[in-house]
Amino acid sequence: MNDETKQKINERYERELNKGERFWPDSIFKDLIVSLGLFVLLIILATFVGVPAEPKADPSDTSYLPRPEWYFLFLFKFLAIYGQIPVLGKIEWVATVVIPGVAVGLLTLLPFIERRPDRHYVKRILPISIMIIMVVGIVLLTLTSEVPTVAADGSKLLGILQAVSGLVIPTLAYILLVSMPYIFKSSDRSMVATSMGVTTGLACVLMIVISTVVLVLHSKSVAQEAETAVEEPIVATTLVDQIVAGQDLYAVNCTECHGEDGSVAVIEGVEGLEGEEITPINSKDVLYTITDSAMYEVIAYGRPNAGMTPFGKAYGGELSKSEIDYMITFMRYMWDDRFEAPKIKPLFPALVDGEVPSYDVHIQPIVKRYCVSCHRAGKTNNNYLMTSYEEILTTGDNADKNIIPGDETSYLLQVIQEQPIMDPEKPDEEMIRVMPLTNPLKPNVVDVFIRWIMNGMPQTAEDAAKLSVTPTPAP
Ligand code: HEC
Ligand code: HEC
To answer: So what's the pLDDT on residue 70?
Structure first.
């Protein structure tokens, strides 16, 4: 600092001093008034507006995603973006401690580093530029904090764009700004100032444009997801309805691996998982340790590493949120001894002597519960589909042998009683293939199938009634 400027500053200080107003008590008094006002405002807000309480914390919930308050969201987002960097991303403390630490440290030390007396903004381009980029970055990171770095379909585009606007551009801009004085060593200072201004402006515009693109892309995919989620096929309102809906969904989606009652400990008859040992999901080990929300996560996201595919729509599965909830309700009420199961209608009305069952009343609910999980489109199982009356009668590699009216050797009757049948690809060999039913069917279920086929497979209740021979009451 040369003497002339020192002189000037001292003169100005004297002038201000003479104009009046002392720090104590004048300034302090003003401060007091303002802080009292803020305090009163806070009390009024707390009394009349308040902040809603969050739900009570559940310490056993493993699926809880902690999120910071909004004013820390930018740091949270920064950490997520930083985590994408190949090697460095693994060293978390660099992003959580070192970088914020250096930033705060520099701010604290600023008065000691930047000791020039000039206060006019034209003469302070570098610190102002650094601050502008930082503030713009913080605002943008906060705005994009809801956007995931990996989209539901596995696309990384959003993450890369966010890394460019939140990390790459600011870093490059800082490097450029700091090296500006060396680049333009010989030329005049206004040149340096102009280039700094241009760099800052360009960096900010780029960051804003890229973040806007990120937000637009994200809102589009969210809208798309909402569209596909609109169709909620089953709406079950009562507890019993929910349990029944859940049981049907469970039967179709889960029996294959976990068994009709969740008791499977060794998977059988599932390609790729043959002989896999699993924890029975009807056991206390699972039911007592997994909360409903964690169970939801398991079903929606699956256990891809263990061979259980995702079922939730958000992860590429077929089930909506409420469908998964119904299954959880079913599992809780039927298997978890801490819940008392309400009375549920039997799967099909019991048959009396001589009564012939129909597809509509008896076979359909049985097939849906016990067979469709393996016999539907997308599963091989000899191409035998069982989702409709026609399919049951006509599909399959052995369509002519599966169901023969009045014939006890129909393949269907054999496989459900665990009799081996012929492999259609090797017709000459011994009968070798046994259908891998996870649990033997109950005798009354087998009985329904036998009576149905022996009496020519009636579809409707009326057709079945015509065939029934109800015993005539004794005179
Ligand atoms: C293709 C086979 C398969 C299907 C279908 C399947 N799962 Fe799984 N499931 C597994 C495997 C394998 C595991 C891992 C088991 C283990 O680690 O003990 C598993 C684990 C689970 C677990 C966690 C158990 C634990 O010990 O943490 C639950 C709960 C579960 N499945 C429920 C379901 C439900 C509900 C469905 C139907 C929507 C379903 N699964 C469908 C194979 C399957
Ligand atoms: C765990 C999966 C699974 C379940 C559940 C299941 N099946 Fe099968 N089913 C198979 C497989 C696998 C085959 C092929 C057997 C073979 O030849 O290797 C098969 C074959 C059949 C066949 C012979 C088809 C043909 O063309 O050879 C009939 C009939 C059949 N199942 C009926 C049923 C009925 C009825 C139920 C319900 C009570 C049922 N299945 C439940 C897996 C299953």
So the answer is: 87
In whole angstroms, give the CA distance from residue 383 to residue 106. Answer: 70
Q: How far apart are CA 164 and CA 73, in angstroms?
A: 18
| 374, 379, 402, 423: residue to mutate for ligand 2 pocket, most atoms within 8 A of CB | 374
Higher-confidence residue of 286 and 181: namely 286
Give burial (CB, 10 Å; 0-12/13-18/19+) of 328.
buried
Q: Whose CA is nearest to atom 18 of ligand 2?
A: 433
In this structure, the residue with its CA closest to atom 2 of ligand 2 is 374
Identity of the residue numbered 140: L
Residues with CB under 6 A from ligand 2: 256, 269, 370-371, 373-375, 381-382, 384, 396-398, 402, 411-412, 415-416, 421, 423, 433, 435-438, 441
Ligand in nearest proximity to the CA of 300: 1
Q: Which residues line ligand 1 (CB under 6 A)?
A: 253-254, 256-258, 270, 273, 276, 278-279, 281, 286, 295, 298-299, 303, 306-308, 311, 327
Q: What is the chain's mean pLDDT, rounded?
A: 86
Q: How far is the CA of 375 from the centre of ligand 2 (A)?
A: 7
Confidence of residue 389 (pLDDT cuts 50, 70, 90): very high
Identify the residue whose C-alpha is closest to ligand 1 atom 18. 278
Tokens of 170: 């600011």
> pLDDT tens digits, residue range 348-380?
999 988 899 999 999 999 998 888 888 888 777
What's the rounded Cα separation, in Å, for the pair 189 and 260? Answer: 80
Question: How far is ligand 2, taken at its centre, from the CA of residue 381, in Å?
Answer: 6
For residues 417 and 440, what is the distance between their CA atoms, to the nearest angstrom?
8
pLDDT (mean) for 436-452:
86
Buried b / exposed e over 208-245, threshold 16 CB at 10 Å, is eebbeebbebbeebeeeeeeeeeeeeeebeeeeebbbb
Higher pLDDT residue, 464 or 342?
Answer: 464
Nearest atom, ligand 2, residue 436 CA: 1
Average pLDDT over residues 312-333: 90
pLDDT in the model for residue 183:
82
The whole-number average pLDDT for the span 435-451 is 85
Please report which confidence band the pLDDT of residue 59 belongs to, taking 50, 70 and 90 as the band edges. low
Residue of 167, 158, 313 whose CA lies nearest to 220: 158
